[in-house]
Amino acid sequence: MTAPLLGTLAVLALVDSASFGTLLIPIWLMLAPGRLRPGRILVFLVTVAAFYWAVGLLLLAGADTLMTALDQDSPVLTYAQLVLGAVLFVGAFFVGREPKDGSSPAPGRFSRWRERTVSAEGRGGLPALMGLALGAATLEVATMLPYLGAVGMLTAADLPVAQRVLLLTGYCAVMVLPALLLLGARIAARRLIEPLLIRVSAWMAKSSGETIAWVMGIAGFLLLRDAASRIGLLESIGISIG
């Protein structure tokens, strides 16, 4: 377990923490009319984190099987990571452009979900809340590029299974940490934090395309750098990352 690996995983986890399911939906839940119900928001965040942890375990198990079939020392996966990183980094410059009419989706349907899952009068209760969390995570998992890249890095790292699982657990915890901190601030200082939540929510809803571009760019750069370092590409052109 090396410091560069830990640092890269931490950055990827923080990028993932700004996604729709790990930050925007929790903020919207915190802004629900009426009394704040932090227990239900915690259930949402725990459900999202547990879902990604379970998916990560399945991906690690499948990747281990694939690497065994390819031979542990085969550079095939490293070169595949290099190509993926390059594609993501270059692709980031071509996505996220706003539509010409500046239109944005109406929030009515989500407002109804929020009332059902968080408000005291909501009839959906915890099952509806967990369903919302699982639905959001399922829709996002294929586009959570930093997360998929992190799983790839854990697979390529020469680490025992226990350490991989521990790092995956820490990654999923960091993914929901910003939302947990905002929830704590919302509980402790509602008047101070609520205007900030409203601004962040509006900005994320308006800039979702641009956010995807940034996520692709950062994830692509980190994957590209890691793969280039492991195959000696950086050293061959005189670049050292320590």
TrEMBL record:
The keyword Transmembrane applies. It holds the Pfam family SfLAP. The keyword Acetylation does not apply. Keywords: Membrane, Transmembrane, Transmembrane helix. The chain crosses the membrane at residues 6-29, 41-61, 76-95, 126-148, 168-189. This is GAP family protein. It comes from Ruania alkalisoli.
